């Protein structure tokens, strides 16, 4: 491994230990495997402090070496508010011939076979239920793997209802017929699903050609419910590309979680002719319903939409903003303030003054406080008297 990659890996490892402070190990007795299997568990730093909060779960095959770089990337993204906190489960596969046994596939059928079939059942019938019973998990589940394990995770797509909501596949050594079966399955999906695929330009031809066919076929299937991304990393090897691919995959899957940035604003919001408040509401509904992540609307996002509404003179949408404010911050003055602002902009200072008065009796939030409300009330009284 080049020296610079060692330094990057060390940095990610250090970050993972600092933020995933509850990194523990467990041994699961498996009837399917006829043995115990060791796993690594990474609980978010906030896990104990938030007893009612539920977290998405990331299951890592090849957890022996994927756990630390994944936890580092998640820690970094979470620190900046770009990625949610996630429970990480790393499955150990480096003992004896576990990795080879776990990924045993019948070459003629292209399906898990013998010990591979046992491992397939272990993940779906034992590990996932065990984790969901023991920890506070949301319904959103991600699975990731590298080369043979990256291929293996796709078998969960073959089920009538895929077990996982998101798949991260790094340089998969695709099983027989997989480049055709995966797109066929994705084309028929009726629920949202995330699929990330990557390769290195240093991958050998045997790996890269089937991946290219898979990428082409997924694009032809073109199911709008499938959030798909393919990365080919230049100047990387089969192993080094993983450190590039991990953040790319995570930011693809959790794109909607990120605070509104300039790209989202310019490409998705500012181009709308109407429905700015609806966009904001839908952004957080998707976080909750699709990703299983529930957070109040960020005040920074709220202010971005409010500013755009004022710029576009779409004052009637401030009523919807008031509803969003009341749902997310019921004790704060945000909702009443938005109604006051709406009536003020629509030329009704009397009703605006009443709403500002109501707001002054509620809790401050962001840059909204009692002094501002009293100032707005005085302004509305002046408008009532002068009509200006």
From TrEMBL:
The keyword Signal applies. Residues 1-21 form the signal peptide. PROSITE patterns: TPR (PS50005). Pfam families: Esterase. InterPro entries: AB_hydrolase_fold (IPR029058), Esterase-like (IPR000801), Mycobacterial_A85_antigen (IPR050583), TPR-like_helical_dom_sf (IPR011990), TPR_rpt (IPR019734). TPR repeats lie at residues 333-366. The keyword Hydrolase does not apply. It comes from the Bacteria. Keywords: Signal, TPR repeat. This is Ferri-bacillibactin esterase BesA.
């Amino acid at each position: 491994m080049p020296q610079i990659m060692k330094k990057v890996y060390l940095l990610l490892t250090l970050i993972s230990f600092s933020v995933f402070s509850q990194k523990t190990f467990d041994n699961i007795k498996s009837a399917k495997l006829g043995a115990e299997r060791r796993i690594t568990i990474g609980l978010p730093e906030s896990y104990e402090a938030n007893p009612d909060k539920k977290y998405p779960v990331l299951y890592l095959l090849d957890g022996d070496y994927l756990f630390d770089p994944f936890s580092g990337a998640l820690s970094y993204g979470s620190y900046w508010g770009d990625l949610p906190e996630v429970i990480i489960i790393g499955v150990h596969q480096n003992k004896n011939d576990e990795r080879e046994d776990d990924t045993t596939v019948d070459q003629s059928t292209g399906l898990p076979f013998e010990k591979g079939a046992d491992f397939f059942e272990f993940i779906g019938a034992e590990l996932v239920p065990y984790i969901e019973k023991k920890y506070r998990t949301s319904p959103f589940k991600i699975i990731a793997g590298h080369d043979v394990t990256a291929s293996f995770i796709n078998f969960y797509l073959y089920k009538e209802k895929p077990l996982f909501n998101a798949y991260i596949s790094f340089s998969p050594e695709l099983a027989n017929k997989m480049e055709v079966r995966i797109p066929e399955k994705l084309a028929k999906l009726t629920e949202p699903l995330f699929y990330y695929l990557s390769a290195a330009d240093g991958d050998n031809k045997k790996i890269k050609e089937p991946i290219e066919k898979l990428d082409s076929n997924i694009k032809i299937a073109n199911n709008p419910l499938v959030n798909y991304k393919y990365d080919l990393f230049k100047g990387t090897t089969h192993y080094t590309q993983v450190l590039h691919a991990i953040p790319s995959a995570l930011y693809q899957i959790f794109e909607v979680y990120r605070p509104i940035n300039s790209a989202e604003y310019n490409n998705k919001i500012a181009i709308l002719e109407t429905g700015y408040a609806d966009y904001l509401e839908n952004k957080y509904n998707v976080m909750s319903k699709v990703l299983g992540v529930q957070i109040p609307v960020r005040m920074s996002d709220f202010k971005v939409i409010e500013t755009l509404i004022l710029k576009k003179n779409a004052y009637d949408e401030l009523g919807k903003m008031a509803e969003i404010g009341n749902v997310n911050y019921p004790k704060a003055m945000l909702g009443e303030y938005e109604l006051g602002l709406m009536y003020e902009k629509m030329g009704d200072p009397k009703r605006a003054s009443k709403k500002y008065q109501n707001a002054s009796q509620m809790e401050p939030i962001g840059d909204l406080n009692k002094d501002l409300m009293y100032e707005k009330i005085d302004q509305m009284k002046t408008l009532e008297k002068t009509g200006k």
